Structures are given as structure tokens and as C-alpha cells.
Sequence to fold (1278 residues):
Amino acid sequence: MDTDTDTAAPANTADPTRPDLPGGHPSELSSPPPRGETAARRSATRALLRLSPYAGTVRTPLVTATLLALLAVLAGLAMPLAIGAAIDGPVAERDLAGLGWMAGLVLLLGLVESGLHLARRRIMSGPTTAVEARMRQDLFHHLQRLPVAFHDRWPSGQLLSRAVNDLSTIRRFFAFTSVFLVVNTITILVGLAILFSISPVLALIMVVIGIPTALITLRVEFRYNSESRLAQDQQGDLATTFEESVLGVRVLKSLGRGRHLARHFAAQARQLRGTELRKIHLLGWVWMWIMVLPEIGVAAMIAYGGYGVATGTMTVGSLVAAITILAYLRFPIDSMGWLFSEANETATASDRYWEVRDSLREIEDPAEPADLPRPVRGELRFEDVRFRYSGSGGAEERAGDDEVLRGVDLTLVPGETMALVGATGCGKTTLTALASRLADPTGGRITLDGVDLRDLRLADLRTAVTTAFEDPVLFSASVRENVRLGAPDATEEEVVAALRVAHALDFVSALPWGLDTRIGEQGLSLSGGQRQRLALARAVVARPAVLVLDDPLSALDVHTEAEVEAALRRVLSGVTSLLVAHRPSTVRLADRVALLEGGRVTAVGTHHELLASEPGYRALLATPDDEDGRDGVAEPAGNEVSSR
Amino acid sequence: MSDPADAGTPDAGRSPAPTTTPSPTDTSTPGDDWRGVAAEDVEDPEGQASLRLERRSRRLLGELIRPRRGPVALALLLTVLQNASYLAGPLLVAGAIDVGLPAALDGRPEPLLWFVLGYAGAAIVSAVLQFAFITLSGRLGQDVLLELRQRLFRHAQRLSVSFHEGYTSGRLISRMTSDMESLDRLLAEGLDGLFTSLLSMIGIAALLLWMDAPLALIMLAALVPLVLVAGWFRSRSRSAYRRTRSSMANVITHLVETMNGVRAVQAYRREHRNDEIMGEASGEFRRANKRALDVLAVFVGATRSLGNLNLVVVLAVGGWWVADGRLELGVLTAFLLYLRRFYEPLDRLAMVLDSYTGAAAALEKISGVLAEAPHVAEPSEPVRLVSSRGDVRFEGVEFGYGEDRPPVLPRFDLEVPAGQTVALVGATGAGKSTLAKLLARFYDPSAGRVTLDGVDLRDLADEDLRTAVSMVTQESFLFSGSIADNIRLGRPEATDEEVVAAARAVGAHPFVTSLPDGYRTEVHKRGGRLSAGQRQLIAFARAFLAAPAVLVLDEATSSLDLPAEQAVQRALETVLRGRTAVIIAHRLSTVLIADRVLVMDGGRIVEDGPPAELIGSAGGRFHALHEAWRDSLV
Fold:
């Protein structure tokens, strides 16, 4: 019945005893992130055991809470007995004083019951929310240090559902599921024993009723959970479609394709409705049985008990007590199925959590880090650097020769500005990512002032080398915070100066709250050119020895470009910079230009030298005016480059 | 499903689906400066939530329910019947004890047997009715939700671009995600339960009053402290849940932004700061959640204590009266059984009340969006335009973004004959993009008119207008699906060959075929690896496939490198033959293929002529621009 929780991924043999060691286990980095249900269903017990390091921190409250819950439940169970005794004794004998005593006893039991339940919840609320927060923090900490390649494969939604939903399931397990798995088992056994002491037949009736009830709830809960996961996925898909229809509303409007997407959305929404209806059906089904089975048990008890009372083998009081006990055991019996399925959910959640935590960080500080010679001169050297994207699409992709960089040799002299030119998709951006170790080359090495990047502390490296990306990432934070990303301790003056250099100060001052204005997705949206200028300011404020800029001028209009260009020129002086360029205007900022073709640097020289000597370069950067007619020489060369 | 009190923490069961963007309900805590200031989400009816729905919500709800009156009435009938049969149970137990047992003692077991059978029968009927009610009311709820989702989707598409710009995508998306979820949660957590609980409480009270009024009054006296406790819980839990929701929204935002921007995070050594921020956000959620759990603990503890206290009072007084002979023993037993059923739904009721307030607020926000009238509305009696020549005219057009802001186009006249390629040049803010948006009817002019083949754009059916006029912008948005799907968006009925031909025409074919799955490559899975230029080429191919009579390019080539741009230009020259085109370009190279160049400044045309002519006129603005550009090349 839970076939859909099975996927055929290979089991991950991880050492459950040392989960806090980062990168301690081999993991299948190459497997694409699974959707919805994950990883192999290992033994649920083993998955739960992996939570033990965290469970350890709540051991004392957990044990205390279990004991309190047990006492509370037993007190609750004793109440019907006391009531039964009151009816049989003082009430039947018209002993008002005795009735007072019995009522006092019931009151005591009742207060103990509710008081202990209250205490249990209060004891658990602190530690379990703390465990959840700690697990989330550890997950987040780990995620931030996983390589970019990992994040390319894992949609943030998948990570989010682990950090939110799965951790919430785990917290619930600590706070409630684990406690009541123990307590309810004991309660049911004790209740059964009491019933047995009243009458073995009544106990038998409870067993006959209780077992199918628990089995039905367990079975339905399993199916309900898998439908819930499906519904959650479908909700996610629906949200994605709507999100795209809103973000792409201009495209849809200008092509008149709103209805097209609306049909798609309607189909998805109906699918979701189908899943929800199946969930509702299951819910109705389980409620029906939960309601009817115990009642039939009560009917059977009355029939048998009535017969017993009539024949004098049983008292009315004990019959009432038995019925009340059955009523009291209803919740523990019903919930056993639910608790088992919760435990199973928790096992899945734990698997999903550790699946991410077990992923290797790969790019980390070396065991014995070397120091950068001070001051950093900024000589960046690529030696036979090779790179291939691994594990992005499974075997069929790896079969092809998809090496992006095939032996890049390039040296940046300290202080010089080197432009990197190449056709779209030739690996320029990949090369820039290697310089600050967002990825490591799959062959060859990169050195900074003669030290292999992999021998440097990441913090040292990334302080010395700063990268500004083509698609600038802005966070939902103030402008100041966004700029200070490059240097958290930068002063106000430095931030303002950097904004001025990047020609961003004017528009930032014009924002409603100036530097305090929140930008990003949850704040004001900025134009492409504005975003790019902020990204530039961010790189400027960092004052690195080596600056890597991925096409910093692409989204600027002609007028602004000229201004930013002038500003950049000031920024670049004295700093070693690698500048990805698509445009002659950007190339003009560089001292030398490197031409990247076929995964190699095929030529290095000034703009004019390369224009004169390299047909490939001419095809990329010569404008129609530089050629003898735009349909002439350039075209075949251009085709050659771009169709490779 | 079983103990609701423990099972559902506010965010536990159904936290937002992975892709949702939480609505920014800002709770500025100290140390939040980094977040910066944003326009506060002013529409936050949850703040002054009451049990009453606003008129707008009521009207919407009425519209949704009216067509389903029959099933709704049936569901109500089912739940009434179900409650009646459920409440019969203890009554039959009382009968069994008071009538059946004495009879059995007298040697007549039949009455007892009948009571037992009646009890079992009532239980079975009640369970079956419960099943019918749950499925019927569930279906009703899901139908309403489905209709609401579709309405919201279609309405969002109808609303003008200016609405989207003002409302922001994040807020609109949370209408569809978190607000719909609030409604869904109410449906799932038991709008049905609310009915049943209230009904059974009322039923029990009536029944007990009928059985023995004095004892019933003693028991019902406990309602007074219960109502007080529930009121306390509602006010405390509402603020606690609000805090958990907003702090969780912060956790989610921070996590998603960090993961999506992980390149920048790592390159700028942002990890530690992010850890701190996450520690704060997550800690805030932890405190809020602990608080919510503690409030719940007190509530559950208090109601349970009251229930037990009530039990003791009923037992003591009832026992005394039974001893006095004033009360039947069976009635006392029934009282004790009903007491349990009376308190059973209380925990649930409190939770449902909470999700009800959340859902009412959500409905209010959704109805707010649905009440927005589209500014750029489709005409009621559209003029049909079978095939357009592409003759574009601006006649006395005036336009400004909002009353209080200076007009972007003061008074604008322009005629673009069919087939002409016009390039617009000018500084940011000169009105180029506005012109393009008016032509694509993203906005309507505040005065004057824009015509296509002599027909006012406002009189054209949306479909005809969109077939005739297509716009490609700088932001080349790709939808999830394959590259082919994205190109095909230009013309859904296009064949694979036509898709490839369009890609070939703009020079996108080589890079597409170099991708592992070619045209079937999913853009979203690999969207990160498509460069801005590649995305733009796909958007171009899309527009070319659409083959409109009028093509508007708003800085559509900004991310292309020169070879790609040249390929696009060559394609443009063939594709644009016979079509009207309006091109806004950063790069003067693109401008040179135009038949005519318009230099704009302050919403006016300051130079107008063929490019060669303008270049030649020394002292002109275009001449100066061109000089600067030429210098930049060498």
C-alpha cells in the first residue's frame, strides 16, 4: 500500500554514529535531487536512530515527559474506576459522606491528570523547539558551504521543505509521537488488565474491537500521508505556474498567451482537487470506522454486562466502569495507527534531512592551509586548467565529451586588467567561478601569487579575490546591507564612496528611504542597470587584490555605460582584474585581451593586435564598420565560432 | 487527525509549498536594521480580525456558494441527522440501565437486547452519515477552492501591467499560495468539525435539559469559565500564531534567497553573517512557537481541568440525588457519558476558530484582488481585425504614470507606415519604453489614441491585438518546460520544424543543439546555466515564431554578444521585411538597420530621419552619439 514511498535509489550507507562530522560520509553527489519522496526507504528504525545525537540533547525532558504523561494517563484511567466505585458503593448505599470522599478522590485524580498533561507540554515546548532550531541552523550552516554544483542541482524548494516541513515533523516526533508511542502502549495494556480483572470477556471484546481499529487507522494513515505528499507537490507545481504567470505577465500579454497558460493552470488545479478529494475520502473512511467500531464494542459490553448484572455475576458499577474505560481507551487505540505512521513520516523526514547533511562540502579549507604572501600582489595564473560539469544529468550526458575547459593557460600580471572574450557558452563564466573556488577545476591548477588556490583558506582566498556576477544577486535587505556584502565592516563613507564610483549614488539617494530602502524580491525592484551598478559597488567596497567581473556593463544603456565605464577605469587601476567582455567598449578597459576558443586560450594580446591577427576574435568583436561589408568576411568566421 | 492539539502546530502540517513566497508581514524586531524599509503591507486585515466577514468577502462567498445551494443544504441536513443519531447513544445506554437491566433482572431480556441493538444501529447510522457528510462537504470545499483558484488566475492575467507593477509579484503570489492555503486549512481542519461540534454541544445541552433540568443547569454553569478560557486562548493564540507565521516567513525568505544566491554568498564570504541572521530568524520562530505551544498547553490544561471539575460536581450532586431517589441511576450514567462528548470537541473548536480568523483575512485579501477592475480592459464589442497591415499611428497621445507625476509623453504624434522599421534613441526617461508599452497596450494613453490600421487599440479584441503586435523585452522570461515549449509559446500550433527554423533564424540553434537534451532541455532545471544572452535568443525565437505584423523590441539585444547580435540583426532584416518594427536599442549597431531613427528627449521627438542622414548632420544629437559609439569600438 505504500509502494509510492519506495524509490529505487541505492541505499546510502552512512555511519549513524557520527553525523556531526561534515563530509564524513561518501554521498552520491551525482544523483539528481529526487522530487517529493526521496531516497531509499531504509529501515525506519535506522533512520530514526540517526536522530539520536539530537535526541540526546532532550533526553532528560523526554524521559520526564514520558513519565508525566504516563502518570497522567493512569490517573485518567483511574477516574472511571473511582466513578464506578462511587456508584456501586456510596450511591447505592446512600452514604453521602462516602460519596463526598469518592468525589474528592475523582477530583484529585482529575486535577492530577490535567495538571500533569499541562506540565508535560510545558516541559517539552522549550527543548523540542530548541532541537528544531538547532537542526535547522546546522542544516543551513552546511548548505551554505556546499559547492555551487550542489545548488545547481537542488531546487531551493526541496531544501526549504527539508528545513521547514521535515524539521517540524521531527520536532513533533520528539514532543509527542515518541512520548505517546510509549505511553499509549502502556495505557492500553493497563486498561486491558483492568478490564480483565472486571471480566475477561469484556477485555476480549476490547481486543477484538481494538486491533482492527488500529490496523485500519494505520493503513489509512499511510495512504493519507502519501496522498498528502502528492498534494504538496501538486500545490508546489500550481504555485510555480501562477508565479510564472505573474512574473512573466508581460511576455504573456505581449504574445496573448494568458489563456494558454490558464488552461494549463486549470488542469493542474483539477489534478490537485482530485488528490484532495482522495484525501477527504480516506479521512471519511477512517472516521467512519473509528466511530463505529468502539460503539459496537460498547453495545457488546452492555449486552454481555447486562446479562451478567441480570445473572448477578457483575455489578452495575463495574459495567459503567468498563464502558467508561473503553471510552477512555478510544484515543490511545485510535492513535496507535496514527502514531506509527507519524513515526514512519519522521523516519522519512530524517532520511531527507541527512541526505542533505551527508552531501560532501567538497570545497573546503585545506587540512594544512598555506598563507598568502603579504601583501598580496595579485598574480593569478591558470595552468592547464580543465573543467567538466559532472553529475548534472546522469550517464547519457557524461557519455559525451562535455569538457568545458580543455587546458586553459593564462597568467594575469599583478595590476593588469585582462579581458576575456569568447563566444556565448564557451566557458567564460565557468572560468570566473574557478577563480574564487566556487568550483574546483577537474584538471590543472590555479595559483594566486604562486600558491595553489586549494592550499589557501577559503576566507583568505575570497578576501583576495572578489567576483561580480553577470546576473547580480540582490538580497531582500537594505541597499546598505546589499553593498556591504562585499565588506561587512565597511563604514558609511566607504559605502557611499563605492556607490559613487559605480554611479549608483544618484538613484540610491532618490529611493524613498535612501540607503535604508529595502530592495530585492521583498522590496523595491530595480532595473537591470541599477542592479548591475549595485553589484559593482559591492565589488568596489570589498577592495580585493583580484577583481573578477562578469560582463559588468551588459545591462546599461549607452549613456550610463559611458559613465560607469569611466568609474570602472578608476576602480580597476592597481587591481588585477579579469573582465568577461562581450563588447568592444568593455574590452577597451583592459590592458590585454585573452581569447577563449574551444576550451583553451588561443591568443593573448591587445585589442588591436587580436583584431589584426585573429579571425575568431574579429568575428566576435568587430562591428560591421570594421569589416568590408557586414555580409562579407565576418560571416563564415562567425558561423564557425558559434556553431562549434 | 487524532489529537489536533498536538498534531498541528501553526506551520507544521502545511507549511507553504516549496515555491511559495511568504507575504511580508513585517514584525520589526531589534537588530532588524539590515532588512531595510519597505512599503508596509498595509492591507493586513488579520490585525483587526473579527468573526464577521467584510461585505466584499461576503459577496464573493455568496457568489461561490449560490450555485451550490442544493448540496450545501444536503450537507447541513446530513450533519444534523448524524448528530441526532450520535446523541442517541448515551440515551440508549441510560435506557438500557434504567429499563433494560431491571427487566432483565425480572427475567425479560428483550428490552435490554433492543436497547443494545438500537445503540449499535444508531452508531452505524451515525458513522455512515458522518462518512457521507465528510465526503460531501469536502467535495464542496474543494470545488469552491478550485473555482476561486481559477478565478484568481484568470483575473490576474486580465489585470493591467500597471496593476502588476504596483501590487508586486510577491504579494500577488501569496494571494494564490498562502491565502489559498489558509482557506484550505480551514476546510481541512474542520469547517465541518465546527458545525458538528457546535451542533453536538447544543444538542447535548438540550438533551440534558430535557432529561434533568437542575443537573443540566449545574453542568452548563461550567460554560461560563469555559467561554472565558476560550476567549483568553483566542486572543493569546492569535498573536502567538501571527508571530510564528511572520517569523517563519523570515526564515523561509532568508533560506530561499541564500540558496538562490549561493554564488554571491560564497564569493563574498557571507556565510557567517547569514548564519547569524538565520540564528536570529530561527530563534525568533523558536520563541514564537514555544509561546504558541505554551498557550496551547495552558488552554488544554484549563479545559481539561474544568471538564474534570465538572465531572466531579455532576458525580457528587447527581450521586446525592440518586441516593435521595430524586434521579435515576441511568440518567446519571448518561450525564457522565455526555459530559465526555461535551468536552471532546472543545480543543478542536479553539483551533478551528483560529484557522477561521486566518481564512477570513485571506478571503478578504483575495476578494480585494478580484475586486480590482482591469485598467486596460477588453472592449465589450471588439472590432475584428483579420489580418493586420501594420500601420501604426499615435494621435495626440498623452501619458503619465500617475496623477502626481509629470507626464512622460506630453503630447505625442507619430505615424509609422506599414513595413517601416523605426529605431528609438534617447536617454533613460526620454519616453522610449513608454511608447513601446502603449503600442503593446500594456497601458492606455490618458488622452489621444493609438491606432493599428486605423483602429483604436482599445477597440480591438485582445486576441487580435496580440496576434498583430508582439513585444520582446530586455527581461527574457522563460517558463518551466523545454526550450521548444518556450519558443512555441509564440505560436502554440507551430510544428517542430517551425520551432527549429525560428531558432535557426535568430542563431539560437547551435547552442540549443549543444545542450544535452537539445530542444527538449528543461529550462528551469538548467536555467541557471543558460546565460542571459541565450535566454534572450530564446525569447527572440519566440517572437519570430509569432510573426506579428508589428514587432516591438525593447532593449531586446542588450545581453547578446556581437556575433549573436549580428545573427539577430540578419534575421531581423529578413523577418522584418514587410513588417512594422519599433526598436529600442542600447547598441547603435542595431539602430543602423532601421529605416528611420527617432531621437527622443523629454517625451518629444527631437530628431527624425534615416540613420545615414542623421549621422551626417553634424551638430545633431544622433551624430554625437554615433561619434561616441564609433570611438568606443576602437
User: Anything to note?
Assistant: Chain A has a mean pLDDT of 80. The beta strands of chain A are 380-388, 403-412, 417-422, 443-448, 451-452, 465-468, 546-550, 576-580, 592-597, 600-605. Residues 39-357 of chain A form a domain with the ABC transporter transmembrane region fold fold (CATH 1.20.1560.10). The first helix of chain A runs from residue 44 to 49.
